[in-house]
Each structure stands twice: as C-alpha cells, then as structure tokens.
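Slack export, channel: ligand-projects

TW: morning all. Re-posting the request from yesterday since it got buried. We need the structure predicted with the small molecule present, not the apo form. The ligand is zinc ion; the SMILES is in the block with the sequence. No rush, but it would help planning for next week.
GE: picking it up
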Amino acid sequence: MRLSRVFIVVLCLVAVSGFVYAGSGSGDESLTKLLDGNKRFASGELAKKDIGNERRRELTKGQHPFATVLSCSDSRVAPELVFDQGLGDIFIVRVAGNVVEPTTIGSIEYGAEHLHIPLLVILGHESCGAVTAAVDAKGEPEGNIGAILKKIMPAVKTAKKAKKDKEGTLDMAIQENIRNTYKEIMKKSKIMKELVHEGKVKVIGAEYYLGTGKVEMVELETASHAHH
Ligand SMILES: [Zn+2]
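GE: finished. pasting the full token output, ligand included:
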C-alpha cells in the first residue's frame, strides 16, 4: 500500500509540474544550458550530441526546444554550434542584423505561446556586417537591404551621439541594436509582453565574439533606458 501512496504523490507532482509553464524547465535553466554549451564551444570540447536515426525518429512525435534564439544570419554565428546543442534543442529565428518585423515576431510568439519555450535570447555579434553597413550608410537606405538598415539606424544614431571612434561606434551600435530589438518585441507583441510579465518567459540580450567564441550578456535595460 505504501507503494501506491508513493505513486499518488508522484502523480500529483507530475500534475503540479504540468502547470509550470515550460515542459523543458525554467528560463534560468535554459540559460544555464546554453551558457554551459557555449563554454564547451569556446574551449573546443564539444559534447557528443545525439543526432542519430533514433533521436530523429523520436523528434517526429514533436519538438520541445528549450530556448528561442533570435540571431543574425552571419554564417559564423550559427546558434546550434555556438551553444553546442543538437537537433530539436533550439528554436531559431535568423535575419541579418537580428532585427524584427511582424513575421519574425510571430515566430518568436509561436515558440513562446505554442511550444512553451521559457527563454528568448536576442543574440547580436561582434563585427556585424549589417550594423557596419548601417553605420557607413549615406542618405536614406533603399530596397530590401535598406529595410534592414532602417531598422538598425536608431541604434547607429544613439552610438554616433556618444562620439566614440569608428570601432567604438560600431560596438555600441551592435549593443544598442540588441536593446532596440528587445524594445520592439515588447512594444509590438502583446503575447510576449504578457508572458514576460507573468514570469513565464525570460528575455536576455547577448553578444557573440567571433574570435573567442564566447557569448557575453548584454544588459537590456540600462540606466539611461529605464524611463519607467
Ligand atoms: Zn551580423
């Protein structure tokens, strides 16, 4: 009889944990997994990932990624590699300059609301070509690439006001652009705003450094931005 009591307790625990938002743990747990993976990547000691036939078959039943990463399209910033993760682990949205518009915000919402992913990482990177192009742009950017640059321009303006050297301006624009993307998601996505306020989704900013292979956190709300 004692065994059945244990069984009931276990059932209750499973039921209770079912109400916790993520099937795959909290945003903090997800962040730890990513940062541990990045440590392995940066040190060149990659984990042996299960991407065999069996894992692939298992994933046909459904996906349960533990993190969403919005990153630049830059071929050197591939999230699965940079965070040393396998198939089915990360829900990824990639676009040059890691900017957002309705379809990309929709993808992020899908991950948070339907896949119950508890973490969103907005990942910019060192020497970003898109941000560099926005810093160097003369006049009003045009065409489809121009549409990306226009999104990055507010970050460039802020960085140029700080009157740093060329490299300093670029570095600052890269980080400001991460913060602007965060602000835009919070402003334009009711779903994300609610999930973040309810503590169901954690959003963090990060920058990837090409040379070291390391991902460093970027403060999303700096003192100068915290108006509210
Ligand atoms: Zn880039």
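GE: first-pass observations. Confidence is low (pLDDT under 50) at residues 10-23. The two ends are 57 Å apart (CA to CA).
TW: perfect, thank you
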